[in-house]
Predict the 3D structure of the following.
Amino acid sequence: MALTRRQFMTLTGGSAAAAVLFAACGVPEDELLVEPPVLMPEDMVSGRDNWYATVCRECASGEGVVVRVMEGRAKKIEGNVDYPVNAGKHSARCEAALQALYNPDRIRGPLVRAGERGTAQFEEISWTDAVSRLSFRLQNLRGERRQRRVVLATQPLSGHLGLVVRQFADKYGATYLPFESIEQTNLKTAVKAVFGQERPPDFDIENASFILSFGADFLNTWGSPVRYSRGYGNFRQGERERGTHYHVDSRFSMTAANADKWIPVKPGTEGLLALSIAHVIVKDDMGDSAAADALTGGDHSMLDPYAPDAVADRIGISSEKIHDIAHEFAEHSPAIAIGGGSAAAHTNGESSMTAIYSLNHLVGSVGVQGGLRFNPPPPLDSIAAPPSSGALSRWKTVVSDMRAGRIDALLMSGADPFYALPGSLDIRTASYDVPLIVSFSDIIDDSAAMADLVLPKHTALEDWGSDAPDFGPGYEMVGFQQPVVRPFFENRGAELGTRGFADVLMAVAQGVGIDLELGAETFRDVLRADARKLYDLRRGSVSAPTFGAFWNGVLQRGGWWDATATADAGAASPQQLDEFEEPQFDGGDGFDYYLTPFSQTGIGEGQRAHLPWMQATPDPITTATWRTWLEINIHVAEDLDIREGDVVKVTSPRGSIEALAFPHPGVPPDTVSIPLGQGHSMHGRYARDRGANVFAILAPLEDSKSGAFAWAATKVNIEKTDAWVRVPKFENTVPDLPVDEHHRVYQTTANDS
Amino acid sequence: MIPGDFQIKKPSGKQMMLLSTLGIGGLAAAVVVVLGLTWVISAWMGTPIIFASEEGPEQPIAFPHTTHVQDLGMDCTFCHREVTKSAQATIPSVGMCMTCHQVVDGSTEAAQAEIEKIRDAYSSGDPIAWVRVHRVPDHVHFVHDAHISFFSERDGVAPTAVCSTCHGSVGSMEKVRQVRTLKMSDCVDCHRDNGAPTDCTTCHY
Amino acid sequence: MAESWGMIVDLDRCTGCQACVVACQSENNIPINEEEHFNQRRAIQWIRVERYWEGEFPNVRARFVPIFCQHCSDAPCEPVCPVYATYHNSEGLNVQVYNRCIGTRFCANGCPYHARFFNFWEPEWPESLTNQLNPDVTVRSRGIMEKCTFCIQRIRRTKRAATKSEGDSSAETIFANPELERALSPACVNACPTDTLVFGDLFEMLSARRAGERLPKPKNRAQEIVRRELQDAENGRGYRVLEEKGTNPSVIYLSKVDKETVEEAVSHG
């Protein structure tokens, strides 16, 4: 006899006599079952929670996390206090790894296409069958010497997963092509050119006095936001004097909102502003004179064309302001210049990045405290190479090869080119001429929907792995990722459910008959073998008498690092600056607005659109969720009679999409911004047919040097339609708090106590 | 007749019949409602003597606590080993049963059949759907270890001796049943008697 | 229990990154906020980051303010509840007893911070997502008011652990051990990348402030900050939101530093 409180209330209320008889007699069956243990692996029965360390793979920065596991189920993710990258803190995105693990739309076993390609009709097959089908096809292609016509596309991979994928592509002979919707290519080539470094530098924000950032939304989505935010907190209110931060951007991003000054410039002129700042610093002799000589090639007059008076109009700010910025930047030492994001996403992106990062040389903040520190490669040769990135130019070649029937197989993992390549490339129709498309995705995303064969991989919390972070902490480190829960579909047996991507590749290699030369049978053993090399170094964060204890220690602490092993070689000496290159835009007359797309806090560029927490995470600036909106200047909107929620047709030379208008004061009048990430045709119930895909209307322009995708170089026109849809936003969910002169909810002060 | 005066009309026989039927019917309905309410309220109060069945529910495997506790003299904490360390008492894993039942076969045929079920579960890996006997609602957070350590420290007894305070003499039950109501009054009375906090958020959060 | 739990929010550190919001949803079994919930203005966020606009383009600014239940010592929500489902407990927490709540929503009307949220629907998750739910936190059913609890389940759990390992569950003992401190701190505090949020026992500070006395010698890190920033009205950055309403909140905000003139806010989020 057990009544719930609600039943009792209903019954004593006498609302239904019949309910008395039926509800009180029988107890709902499920209430009697011992709920958690029934569906639980037997060996996990325990009333206690365990915290396991691993590495979060929800964003590229790879944060160290600890996962609370109870009864074999992951419950909560928190930062790993020991981990150098994030030191105990985590972003909103890390938490969502739980929803990736328990996502209701995860693929439950290997699939083979059953209907027309693209209709996402699949039949389930066994893993043995799936692996042998893939091996068979790859073996045949190899027999015909057509390995180069097999394209293997992944997200940029660091650590040992990157090793396995590279080895597979090398030994088999396939074309390996990383895919990044928002490319870091320009950053990397610029860092290589300016500092002679393979990896992006670490910014000592905490100890800096002045930060001048260009385009990079580094507190929100760019680089390693949690690492930068940790520094930023102390940059504002640490032991030292409060630092000053100026942000140059054509969009009012979260980073711009936090800066002391937001400097809106014309899109594509960020590099020009950097050169102009360099001119002022050199002319007023405020910087490092040796660096000034090197940057100008000894001839300071080469910077003359960039005098503030000459370029102010092109940049869109006054020459006095340029003067001020340059003086502030040079007079507050140490000062850091950070560039990335939309500033790197123009056709002159690489040269802009070069100019911006060269400013660090000029004010002498390279390799000093409060400046830039370089990331040494990890002490393991196998994973020393940083993750490579695939520029749009290479993808264009692949797509045209596909169309010409020169690609025999396309293998994709963690990459969704069918969603995120510019729409005008039309990879979808090109792919009809590819005989075999294979996806390793854990969810039917837009690319997996086109696949003939789907081999679903584990989510990060179920899989092994390692990470040598691209945006590292400035010293040697290797993060270790371990399965914190049993695979969710384990109860479906060994032939169904999911498998680790690396393990599948290793099995396929075996089926094809190629030796990956990894020296181990399973991915875990690959990691373990390299952990032994770390053990043999006899230094670093884990010291143990035996290798067994060392291995346990590494997994327990989430990785290995050696804070004393900093980059020994200093930066390369400054190189002469290039001339400014005018940015090219797609869209001439009739396309009046620059379109600055941006990554969202939650769903990023769409890779996390299937996670309801991420969809419901309010954008910091607009508080909008779940939809695609268009940020437009509040006065421009007034002139066009556009109000919040009006459905606006956004047309570029390459197509048009619809978005909900969101006028706000922080948008330059000649610019509009749309968040990336929505408009999936697949990708699970929370993402499907929701909002619009900005990639569809972006012009496939490239950087003139690196070939990287210039995703901020499209111009658009906007047109109000008759429709109106309420913008799902958190703003106004609660009534306004009283705001008046004296009783503000927020207060500001000029004092820095 | 003067205005304001009135005279009770004598009801006709037919009306009398109707009235008395209504009256009796009403009374009967009232009795039914009162009985019904009494039943529901007692069910809510959960006085087990009247309404709960004397026997506990049928379990998928007829696990005899009597054999293990009374005959073999095993401690509660031998199998429910997390009870002194965590909030849940925890059901032992099948693997733990197997530490003995790999070799122990049972003395009767019936017992052997039940032990065979455990071995089947172990080899197939399928969890056993035990039927839950003690259950507090989701909004109540009962913590076993805190209660056990309090009583065993105060009375200087082994943790095992504390279990029967709430669970009764499980060792003598063929089928485990609930002996206390485990309603809030039950909890709060005990908390008051023992000087434990009675703040709502002690248990409700 | 002589604690009075409180929080410090340094607005000069807050970047509005939403890490606290999602951490809270994960820890506290908050229902998924669907699109319709936002449209009906019924989304639930125990902690939210409000955004205030200031100025006009190009000198526009946005300010971020995290707002959550302020655990007021003289809370307006408490006396209006007809069933005593919300009250102030001895740890300085404004608690919400779900099994008492009958959903009158009087408390939500009374709360000047709008920190209380009502469950207009039965919370629903696809079956597989329920695996993530925190067993230490009640899933609130339809018709029940809910709000920030300062993660009381973590306080309870850590106090039990401290009693076992240290033989004492006082705030001093717990905060002397970084591991226990982290286990006790609310999910938002642990997540916050910029250390905007600081959690601690503010008993001495809050009671002195309530009595209008000088703040005593600080006993812990949180109290140090409070004393430094709240004592000196001239130079300190400390203030309490809507303090003039006499609610005596347990959350102390430190104002944003801005050396330039502050213009009037135009709207908020």
Summary: Chain C has one domain: 5-151+186-268. DSSP finds nine helices and twelve strands in chain C. Chain C touches chain B through 19 residues (CB under 8 Å).
